[in-house]
Amino acid sequence: MSSQEFQAAYNSIYDTGDRLLQYLKEFREGLATQGNESQGLQSIENDINKALKGLQAQKYQVAVIAAMKAGKSTFLNSIIGADILASETAACTICRTDVRHIKPGKNPRLLEYREGQRKPVILVEGDAGEIQQTFLLRTREIREKSNPDNTTRFEIEHPIEAISKLSSLTGFTLVDTPGPNEWDSANFNTNALKQTALEALRTCNAILFILNYASYKDNAVSDLFKDVVENRKDFIAENTGKIYFILNKIDQKTERDREIAEVIKDLQLELASFGFRNPVIYPASSRQGLLAKLIQQGKATESQKKDFKKFFSARYATEDEEGNQIIPAPWKIAPQALEDSGIPTIQETVIQRITQNSGWHLLSEVVAELDKAAKAMEDTLNTEIKGWKMGIEALKEKVEDYRRRSENARANIESVKKAVEQQKQILISGFSQGINTFADVAKAQIASEIDKIAESRSANSPKQKKIQLTPQPMPQIEKIRFVRQRVGEIGEALLGLIPVFGKELGTAFKFSASLWDKLSETVPETFNGSVYQPDYNPEKFDPYIIRCQTQTEAQKILKTINDVCAPSIESWWIDTQDQLVREGTSIREELATRIQEDIQKISDELSNYLGDALQVKLNINPIQFPSFDFPGIDAGIQRQVEVFTRIKNINEVQKESRKKKSNSLCKGDQTYTVDVPIEKTIEVQDQRTIYQVDLRQTLEQIKQKIDDNVSGSQLLLEQVIEQQVDTDFRSAERQINDYINRFQNDFDRVLKERETKEAEAPEILARLEYQKAKLIEYLSQLTSIRESLNSWKPVK
User: Fold this and answer.
1) How far apart are CA 243 and CA 263, in angstroms?
2) Residue 329: which H helix or E strand, with range?
3) In this predicted model, what pLDDT tens digit does every residue of 605-622 receive, in sequence order?
4) What is the bridge-based pairing of β-strands 172-176 and 96-100?
5) What is the CA radius of gyration of the chain?
6) Terminal-residue alpha carbon distance, the chain
7) What does pTM read for this prediction?
């Protein structure tokens, strides 16, 4: 399905839904003039409005991920069609930046979102140049002052040229992610990028990895891919169609370099080794594409025109009869230069992918909702027609019998509710246990590293001592047995769905480097034996106490411990969180399906009874969970974090607790760093000052940091799961209650009218038959649209 076909289908669906809504309003108004408006029709109107709003408000997100100097900002600018994102040697993207499409003519704005604040700060409202300059200055300020305002993300509202002719994609957003950078640390650290990349893999409709033509094999890129794809190969294989690779800056190729096609083949092999099957790679010259677009739009500055002439115009030069080189004017060659840049091909490919998958599913869900609404109106008309045709006494009997059936249906719904509540608690217990497993293994591994240091120090001490090792946590199999016993046999089937009970959670925890080796490199004077002074009493030697001759040396030890432990724990927690969210999403869908099936059975039994009792054909009442009405776990987590940080009317202790919990998921900060006080002592014999680092105390503080994060994460995930499962059930419950109430209202209205307007029966029946014939036209249109969509159904 091309973007043009998608736009046509979108327009057709919206137009049909809008006319169906108008038909319903006229139908209700006709009833109201007779003093008998059906309250049951209000829910149908609400559902139509919600479906049309979902069609308009749907967000399509394209994440762009790259290491530094890959030309990410220029690539984004070329898609936007404006020089709005700055590019400089220092990293510019310090946190997530969403570029949200707005209609041409609206004022572009730069917004800044801060932790704990509901509304964003409007930094500037103006043209692309003003936004670029303000954005650049603000990011520099945040970098230099270590983000004192707790900025979480930026948003740029600006027309995106790539979709300017597609009103069906008004919710299109480019997600600019922070690349690996060194402004925060001297060591390369991909954790923040890794977390953003994993979130993008889970939630975005398309992911573009930007690679620099000149350095696509750099360690930064390799480390990023290894981190992102490790233990996710199955997941990536299922989502390969939404991942693209852009080989950028191909304009830097010289005559001596290999052909682009050869480089792409080499890159495909490289990416395949990381787990990307048949990777799709597009060559691009983002700078050429951006300048060509600006020239075509008449928005290029003199400086940009000069750049275009300097770097690209010569490629389109011709010779006259005398052999003189003729370089065309930029505006003449801009269209061809844009096409040659590769940007239009990338745009169309990504947009087509979105419309063929996410877009197709949205249109299908909206059509299903409109079809359900139209058939509900058809059922109302059929019920009224039958109610006017049967004897009034017989109708009264049917009404009373229906009341009894309705009460039985509601009792059955309560039984489903109890079962869902039990399943929900099992699910929460399972994921809580998964988080605990992460904490126990991480703490045990760190304790093991600390023990290795103590053992080695003890072996090298003047008088060797046998040390007491840190106890290991309860084996995972014992925890599994404990949880299974606690939840009982009823939960066995559901527990089987939770992978953390069937295999090791996430990746095996490992340090990026040996803590002992790093300490030996950082402070060799402390670990080569010189610390044990001749006059020091060996009997007092404790291998867990590191004695340093200077405070600087002691600080180096703590910094080394932080540099090794914090990123390693954080990286593994990101992997764990990713698995929990992915599996949580899958299991939530499984629970939603069970809810849907149970409530659908109750609804079908009621429909069958009504059809038989009235001797009329009634449509089924499909229990539906359209995705536009149900945010995923990632969105739920983000919403809960925002709620936590906005709580102001609590005491200081609660505030600190909430703050910890709000930071436990969704952030890439190193929250595991320790700040153990360095003990300063004076040796009695020679009055020398000694600085001591207590490894036991250090270990306990690291464990406490982990526990803080675990506690907050458990609460956060529990609340999100509880809310979303409850939402699923309430939606199903509302759908069947609306169905029950609508027929009850229909019966009550017909009975009332029969008692006062029996003489008008022929006219009323004629009007109802006319309205039914008109409604059948809309049902026919929806059937035609659905058949057309099915012909475009994406192949899995």
Assistant:
1) 19
2) none
3) 999 998 898 888 889 999
4) antiparallel
5) 33
6) 15
7) 0.83
